[in-house]
Write a structure and sequence with these properties.
With 695 residues, the protein is mostly helical. Helices cover 53% and strands 1% of the residues. Strands 1-2 form a two-stranded antiparallel ribbon. Strand 1 (127-131) and strand 2 (134-138) form a beta hairpin. The N and C termini lie far apart (82 Å). One of its GO terms (molecular function) is DNA binding. One of its GO terms (cellular component) is nucleus.
Length: 695
């Protein structure tokens, strides 16, 4: 006799493929019940739905949105008819219906409406459309000519029913444009969850990031990201792809700030192993977030942090290509136009300003490292996006109704605020009238110095961030004066010993400030930033001056400063893989030998770096033929090519830095080509401590 099952038993039968969505995402076993026992135990009973139920639910929501859009269109049509017949109606109530979002960026755009500005912008100002659930900025003759044809209610975006989570590549990682930039870091089929640190490590890395990295970058709103970190601790499987990418980038940035000993002590692994793992995890997360097609702010924040973390591990050209990609993505989101930010909430607009300024700064410095003119890589001052304001994160919240007001005292943003203030002054110098006299430029510098000093005077030097900001500000003013004097002397062909002596003194002051920052124990947490500073311009000028005046009264002080610098930054002169570093080391030996020949008036102590450089440059018959020097002791270009050290993009940089000159000729200090990546907009140069650069 056949056995028949009751209706209850049939309903509770477990079949393959009927796991609920929550269990599928968490990768746990599901008993097939509704709600299942796993969801009941974890308190997710109300969220326990099968795939078919979720699909039908999404379809109902989509249909409801379409009906709402039809109603909105009809209302707007009726309003236009009333207006056409001269019948006025109150504008106090908005005619558009603003939807409610579900994420931290909801204040920017409604899911069903592109908010019109109070007055239509001109055709050349561009405008914002909505694409895949996020804003996209368009600005060219084609888009502007079709502006009136675009659906204001984002009709097509609603109909397609797709978001960036479903558009992103699957877990197996099919071949995508992203993979051309970021090769797959893990074998196909590897779960992204395998690279997630343990819960104690997540909390530790987050705190390290807040202490060491965040104060100098301030890329996001820390309390908001704190919620994502908490969610990762509770249930990492519930995070979206963009959130996973952001967390992995944060972990990588935190590890970058640690030394090898600190990594072993705090994370129980070597720095090399940790950086390799987190770099691979971040790349994988960015690829899965479909970052090249994304206009999501969180994804772009993750990419920006990743680029900051790899600048010491990536060659100059690759870094420049990647920062250029980030800049294009930011422009696609409209971050480069203040007009587009007016459509966002005050909270969202401020975060986008922070993101834009950091991306442009990174792109500019990467371009300068490979020899690209600043005219071809404009800085943030050439756009109308406002500077981020000087406020604490506690002053910024999603529900704020008024734009944040900048504080007149040091806040968590003090380092970035002073850096941007200096940059704005530099922009006035470089982009101002070409007939600005030297006196006028010095007057602008004095005005900038007053503003900076007003902020620095309120800093508490017992606070590491305030100490670094103070040293950076003082160094920046010295760099301002140095570059302004250098530019003025070059334009007037002033090769006098007095001018050269002033430049020499200013260069030593800048190097002294940097040595002070490098030697301060409280600033050790920020050494990752200072490792990106390459003071080649000041270093080379001091060495050239010592070659010209080996017996001068300033020789002992100069070598004391240089030795302190080399003690903390030996990579400036002993890295044989970097052309500037290798050639600088040769110039150090040349200046040292010259001063030793005239050492009757001074007692010079040979430092360890000098000893290592002599061993490194010592001829050994058994080794591969070393680099060749010309009669003036300058490394030849053929030697760079033979050693695999030569970069064609650095030809002008190298020629300006290491051309042979007579002892009394100071024209090399006033040449048109700058030495080192110090130029931001034109001849008025200033990066140094302001913006870290790829090593």
């Amino acid at each position: 006799m056949p056995v028949t099952m009751s209706s209850a038993e049939t309903q509770n039968t477990i079949t393959r493929g009927h796991a609920c969505i929550t269990c599928s995402q968490r990768k746990v076993k599901c008993d097939g019940q509704r709600p299942c026992s796993s969801c009941v135990r974890s308190g997710r009973a109300s969220d326990c739905h099968s795939a078919s139920t979720a699909t039908s639910l999404a379809a109902r929501i989509r249909d409801a949105r379409v009906k709402e859009l039809v109603l909105i269109r009809r209302l707007r049509h009726y309003e236009s008819l009333l207006t056409a017949h001269g019948i006025s109606f109150s504008n106090s109530e908005p005619s558009a219906i603003v939807g409610q979002g579900d994420g931290p960026q909801d204040g920017c755009f409604s899911p069903i409406q592109r908010i019109k500005p109070d007055s239509p912008p001109s055709a050349d100002e561009g405008h914002v459309i909505r694409h895949r659930g996020h804003p996209r900025f368009v600005d060219n003759i084609i888009w502007n000519s079709l502006r009136d044809e675009l659906p204001e209610d984002d009709y097509y975006s609603v109909l397609d029913g797709e978001d960036e989570e479903t558009l992103a590549g699957d877990e197996q990682g099919s071949l995508t444009p992203e993979s051309l930039l970021f090769s797959r870091a893990t074998p196909p089929g590897t779960s992204a969850d395998e690279t997630v640190p343990s819960i104690p490590q997540i909390l530790k890395l987050w705190q390290i990031f807040l202490d060491n990295f965040n104060p100098l970058v301030k890329l996001f709103h820390a309390p908001t990201v704190q919620l994502i970190v908490h969610q990762a601790v509770v249930d990492s499987g519930s995070l979206g792809r963009s959130q996973k990418a952001l967390l992995r980038a944060i972990f990588q940035c935190a590890a970058v700030t640690l030394t090898d000993d600190e990594c072993i002590a705090q994370l129980n692994e070597s720095r090399e192993v940790i950086l390799s793992r987190y770099s691979a995890a971040t790349k994988l997360a960015l690829v899965r977030a479909d970052f090249l097609k994304s206009t999501d702010r969180t994804t772009l924040q993750a990419l920006t942090l990743y680029l900051l973390a790899i600048r010491d591990m990536t060659d100059e050209q690759s870094l420049w290509i990647l920062t250029g990609t980030a800049r294009r993505l930011a422009q696609a989101m409209g971050l480069h136009r203040e007009q587009s930010l007016k459509k966002c909430s005050h909270f969202e607009a401020e975060l986008r300003r922070r993101l834009w300024w950091q991306i442009v700064v990174s792109d500019h410095q990467a371009g300068r490292m490979i020899g690209v003119s600043s005219r071809d890589v404009p800085g943030p001052y050439t756009t109308d996006t406002k500077r981020p304001v000087n406020i604490n994160d506690s002053d910024l919240y999603q529900e704020m109704k008024e734009p944040p007001t900048s504080r007149n005292y040091p806040t968590e943003m003090v380092f970035c605020a002073v850096r941007y203030e200096i940059g704005q002054c530099m922009s006035q110098l470089s982009l101002g009238p070409s007939d600005h006299t030297l006196a006028r430029k010095l007057e602008l510098i004095n005005e900038c110095e007053k503003k900076i000093v007003a902020t620095l005077s309120q800093c508490d030097l017992s606070i590491p961030l305030h100490l670094l900001t103070t040293l950076m500000g003082r160094s920046a003013i010295g760099q301002f004066r140095f570059n302004t004097l250098l530019s003025g002397a070059r334009n007037s062909n002033d090769n006098s010993p007095e001018t050269a002596a002033r430049l020499f003194g200013l260069a030593l002051e800048v190097l002294d400030e940097m040595c002070l920052a490098l030697s301060s124990p409280s600033l050790k947490r920020f050494h990752w930033h200072m490792r990106g500073v390459h003071p080649f311009q000041f270093l080379i000028l001091v060495l050239k001056h010592l070659l010209a005046h080996p017996g001068g009264d300033e020789v002992p002080r100069a070598w004391a400063t240089l030795n302190r610098m080399f003690e903390h930054r030996p990579d400036l002169v002993n890295d044989v893989k970097t052309p500037l570093s290798f050639a600088s080391g040769s110039l150090v030996l040349k200046a040292w030998n010259k001063c030793c020949q005239d050492a009757a008036r001074h007692v010079l102590v040979k430092s360890q770096v000098i000893i290592e450089l002599e061993k490194q440059r010592a001829p050994v018959s058994s080794r591969t033929p070393g680099p060749e020097f010309d009669a003036a002791g300058v490394l030849s270009s053929d030697s760079f090519t033979n050693l695999g050290l030569w970069a064609p993009s650095q030809q002008g940089l190298m020629d300006a830095a290491f051309s042979g000159t007579s002892d009394q000729d100071f024209s090399h200090l006033l040449s048109g080509n700058s030495v080192g990546p110090w130029d931001l907009q034109s001849d008025t140069q200033l990066e140094g401590l302001l913006w870290p650069q790829q090593q």
